[in-house]
Specification:
367 residues; alpha/beta; Rossmann fold; Oxidized Rhodanese, domain 1; 8-stranded mixed sheet; 5-stranded parallel sheet; 13 strands
């Protein structure tokens, strides 16, 4: 039942015959977990909160950075440096105090995803990396949850609903991840600021349709958006009977090591914990100067990836060398260059500077 204040708040929904009080009641009874409170997660969370979804979970472990603000509309300049979850929860509760906002500040992993997903009706994937996309997909298949998918890069976006009970899953479309470093992240390749608003709003729409039973969700269809041409295309997808997770004879029956799955041939990685134990390595930060100025490892040299080749002869070859970037993509590419130039003692930091910060925080918290 809706309260009088809810009837007033959702009046424009209630006069839609297709929604009415019954549909609004389904939204109130519904629950959604949003993985990632960034560019895609921002419009998804705001519109679902405004629509009256009764319980919204947010999973993110990052802080608000000034480079987020051109697209992550949940946040403002005054919140730079704050944990995204606290800033997001405050904004969403202001949008709609009638609903419950739940925050999950740990990374979604193979160890916690199944238990986390079971508590929600719909999972929205707002992530920006392949290991987490495969993790979210497999956890959704194993728990029987619909996966409302979105991705963005530069001027292009994609959206779909992967729901193994009724159609294909993400692995049916992409059985294997692309080779490491082939597809850069938004931090490395850029993204038009309004693009996540377009795709995130589509994800929010699909979520509302799933919760209320309205219309035809994007199950078995992939929606492609080209912002420069202002053009949408729609591709039909089929369930793969040989799919490793949702096929007739699945080989993935539990969650796996997704970092290893997405980087099977990666060599020369070093984890943040291993780096902390390494004696006197030479650290090279291959990010851009503005990223370096926002925070870096002590003693690191700044050589942006685009300048690495012409500075390579200035780098000593008789020391352990560790390259790093924001999340590990650029540094993996830099490692290939260094190995090609004969640097046999070179490694790159797995997970990048973000992983280093998480390791340092977890180490500090355990003391």
């Amino acid at each position: 039942m809706l309260s009088e204040s809810e009837r007033e708040r959702y009046a424009r929904h209630l006069i839609l015959p297709e929604v009415g009080e019954e549909g609004q009641g389904k939204l109130k009874a519904g629950s959604v977990l949003i993985i990632g409170a960034g560019g895609l997660g921002s419009p998804v969370a705001m519109y679902l909160a405004a629509a009256g979804v009764g319980r919204i979970g947010l999973a993110d472990f990052d802080n608000v950075d000034i480079t987020n603000l051109h697209r992550q509309i949940l946040y403002g300049t005054s919140q730079v440096g704050q944990p995204k979850l606290s800033a997001a929860a405050s904004r969403l509760r202001d949008i709609n105090p009638e609903i419950a906002i739940e925050t999950h500040g740990s990374a979604v992993t193979s160890e916690n995803a199944l238990d986390l997903f079971r508590n929600y009706d719909v999972i929205v994937d707002g992530t920006d990396n392949f290991p987490t996309r495969y993790l979210v997909n497999d956890a959704c298949v194993l728990t029987g949850k619909p996966n409302v998918y979105g991705s963005i890069f530069r001027f292009d976006g994609q959206a779909s609903v992967f729901y193994a009970r009724e159609g294909p899953c993400y692995r049916c479309l992409y059985p294997e991840p692309p080779p490491p470093n082939l597809v850069p992240s938004c931090a490395e390749g850029g993204v038009l600021g309004v693009l996540p608003g377009v795709i995130g709003t589509i994800q929010a729409t699909e979520t509302i349709k799933l919760l209320t039973g309205l219309g035809e969700p994007l199950i078995g269809r992939l929606l492609l958006f080209d912002a420069l041409r202002m053009e949408f295309r729609r591709l039909k997808l089929k369930k793969d009977p040989n799919c490793a997770v949702c096929g007739e004879n699945p080989t993935v029956t539990e969650l796996i090591d997704y970092e290893g799955f997405c980087s099977p041939m990666e060599i020369g990685e070093i984890t943040p914990a291993e780096l902390m134990r390494l004696e006197d390595p030479l650290l090279i930060d291959v990010r851009e100067p503005y990223e370096f100025n926002q925070g870096h490892l002590d003693g690191a040299w700044l050589i942006p990836l685009g300048q690495l080749e012409r500075h390579i002869d200035t780098i000593p070859r008789d020391r352990d060398l560790v390259l790093y970037c924001r999340s590990g993509h650029r540094s993996a590419h830099a490692l290939e260059m260094m190995r090609g130039a004969g640097f046999r003692r070179a490694k790159h930091l797995k997970g990048g500077y973000l992983a280093w910060l998480r390791e340092r925080r977890s180490g500090a918290a355990s003391r």
